[in-house]
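EI: anyone free to look at a 258-residue chain?
SC: sure, send it
EI:
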Amino acid sequence: LEAVALDEGEGAALESAAKVDRAVAPEWAEFHARLAVWQTQLGLRDAATRRLESLAAANPERAVLARAEVSLAEGRPGDAATILRSALANGRERLREVDILSTALAEVGQWDEAHQQLTTLLARRPHERRWQARAAEWRHRQSPGAATLAALEAAVKDAPAVADSRAALARAYLVAGQPSRAILALGSSPEGSASDHELSLTARALRAEGRSDDALAVLRRRSRPTRELRMLRADLVAEGHSAAEIDAEFSALTAADA
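SC: here you go
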């Protein structure tokens, strides 16, 4: 299912999961935690909430991390950090918790603590390429410049097949106003497979190049787009399209979030 999400998006992964859905039980905790996050990203909040409640009854420990992941997926990194700090204070220091906590801290600008958590991860797995690229991306975000960008490029060059690393470099290029390089960094074409986040970055880069129609074509590849992709698609339709097309896009967005 993770492979489906990386290649075809969370919506496709959720459809595949429906074929093998299982009752919420301790041995299926990871399965249901993933589904709760994907449901959140697709705007299915009520379904995600019900799944989290069932998960809490079956496996309270995994439910804590799932709630943090859902908070992060909803754009509430501060809440995610609060949840995970509490879990770690209770003596748990699993890599997954530290991983999510480091990301949440960076998103709220608490760089010192974010780097501290990332150092903990790298001490346990010093050759983990995605964490090395993450450290380089954060240094560049803190101090944008040629040197930090070159360091990020070098980190990604060492791990070209890691999607998180490619996305980190693409984000940096977009912020620097270099959309063509962002597209090259992603290593994908509108016809290729990509995660929802990579698809969003590709569409944003095409839009920055003045290729809004191409960006829309990329987004329309998803039969079940995440809320982020739907909102970006609605924005693009609002640029120079008819009132009927705009109404249809926003009606779809509203219906999916209902």
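EI: The mean pLDDT is 83.
SC: 👍
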